[in-house]
Design goal:
Distance between the termini: 63 Å
Number of helices: 13
Shape: globular
Order of helices and strands: HHHHHHHEEEHHHHHH
Strand content: under 5%
CATH architecture of the largest domain: Orthogonal Bundle
CATH topology of the largest domain: hpI Integrase, Chain A
Helix content: 55-70%
Radius of gyration: 23 Å
Number of domains: 2
Largest sheet: 3 strands, antiparallel
CATH superfamily of the largest domain: Intergrase catalytic core
Amino acid sequence: MDELIRRYLEYLQVEKGLSPNTQEAYRRDLQKFRNYFAEKKITSISEINKDSLAAYIYQLHKKNGSPATIARKIASLKGFFQFLCLEDVLEFDPSVYLESPKLVKKLPQVLSEEEMDVLLQEPQGVVNPIQLRDKSMLELLYATGLRVSELVNLTVNQVDVKLAFVRCIGKGNKERIIPLGSMAAQWVSAYVEKGRPQLLKNITETALFINHLGKRMTRQGFWKIIKKQAVKTGVNREITPHTLRHSFATHLLANGADLRSVQELLGHADVSTTQIYTHLTKKRIKEVYDKTHPRA
């Protein structure tokens, strides 16, 4: 089974072009699946049937796994067994009987335009390289709606402040071009000219955003920057890097952008993923109506 899992993960990387994070999630899911059946003294994939798979999913429920986690594990298994049938390792896919738990879609948390203005307030006094970097990262994230992994993976030559665009490599190694607003371009330009050179330790480093050690900024590092900025500016909300991405999309739609354009900017493969933001804008319109109409 180990060899089959290895081949499948290689297939996900080479054929499907899935991101390293997604590959790692699949690897963990399949390793737990393999360990469960190893404890049952089942090491051959051909010995696994619909009943034993159902028993495996049942024990995940017993361990109080969240519906989202169980749904992801089922998706991992279905993909794995489909691959085995494709490779003629199995004649029949026992995972076809597995049903994913119904997920309640939670509306993503967003900041209002007023809250974004507060969060993005300019640093006071003499601005040091760290402040330049932090400010330019926040402005760039809100201006483009990048995923945090896309933000920290940017290289210097992927951002053109003169032509005002960002060339981003997203999920599945897909490239997209995103316009860059004047405010973000201004701060990124200042950071590249005055901040980054002072943080740089190795001239061969290509990462746009670097930490105090001169190495590429991590997702965890940027998460800390956002939390620190929220506390500093008095935005009393639980904010993550994704909050800025959600706010970017919601504010665009609220101000008249069409859904397809927002889908392209966010890099969503399916427009249904983007549609969740229309619920947010409708909710906001209702709140404004209830608050302002004299007979609401």
